[in-house]
Amino acid sequence: MKQDLLTFSDWTPDALHSLLELALTMKQSPAAYANVLAGKSVAAVFEKPSLRTRVSFDIGINKLGGHMVYLDCQAGKLAGREDAVDMAANLACWADAIVARVFSHQTLEQFASAAKVPVVNALCDKYHPCQALADYLTLYETFGQVKGLTLAYVGDGNNVTHSLLLAGALLGCNQVVVTPPGHEADPAIVAKATTIGQATGASIVQTTQISDAAGADALYTDTWLSMGDDTPLTTIKEKFMPYQVNEDMMAITGAKYVLHCQPAHRDLEITGSLIDSSKSLLMLEAENRMHGQNAILTHLLGA
User: Fold this and answer.
1) For 59-108, how does the pLDDT look when each residue is reduced to its tens digit (9 = 90+)?
2) Which of 45, 173, 226, 239 is the most exposed place for a label (fewest CB within 10 A)?
């Protein structure tokens, strides 16, 4: 029976830990996995532009011996030509898996229901599981463990926040989500992560106070202005500048490292000097996108 990866909400702690271990093993021993996708093709459907997601999937699939077909729905005039279920069903006639970076999670659900091959969420409005796996792989490499760590997310409660919450709870990583009032993470997802955390020992805290991030091992932030959001920058800065991740915040919280999924806007959500410092894990995160995604495809395709 085929398995999709739309979100980690339906995964078990053991399954996600095994996937994390697989990603690390594949990164450390790439030659052993050079042919696991030999003869296989992956269709990549992109409704939104991308640097890291597109390149890391394309090169990663190639390194595993597979082939990626990139479909740009906007530039390629595919948007609106046919229903999502028909597109997915057709792609599944030829491809061995579908990777989709879309605006709406509902599109992914339609893809998964119509396609006889695995569907991977490469980003949607609710979740970003590939990013979360790369993030926890980065923490795993840096600290030697994930369970028992505390990750503090500071900024806008969004798709990245949601996947960090779910994956972190499954892995036993304590979560502190610090947002401006009115920008909290989805309550249902916070509740789900809290329930998972009760079984794994991970605490979940949602707050508007920076002081609640004291004791965090690492800070995480994301862009304040999501793609397609036309809110004036002056309005965004008025709300979010007190939540800028900077050297002072690192000192106040005691965090050793900082993470950001990128693209980063220097001196807005994070200072450029912090990005370039020895406390920055941004490039390791970006590198690990490929290794995490390679593990996902290897797992889903039974390679």
Assistant:
1) 999 999 999 999 998 665 566 778 999 999 999 999 999 999 999 999 99
2) 226
For 39-62, write each residue's pLDDT tens digit: 999 999 999 989 999 999 999 999
Alpha helices, DSSP H only, in the chain? Answer: 13-28, 52-63, 84-94, 105-114, 129-143, 159-171, 187-200, 233-240, 247-253, 272-275, 282-300
Superfamily for 130-285?
Aspartate/ornithine carbamoyltransferase (3.40.50.1370)
Domain 13-128+289-301 has CATH 3.40.50.1370: yes
CA distances from 222 to 89, 158, 213, 300 (A): 34, 9, 16, 28
Burial state string for 240-258 with b = 16 or more CB within 10 A and e = fewer than 16: beebbbbeebbeebebebb
Positive or negative, the CA dihedral 207, 211, 212, 215 is positive
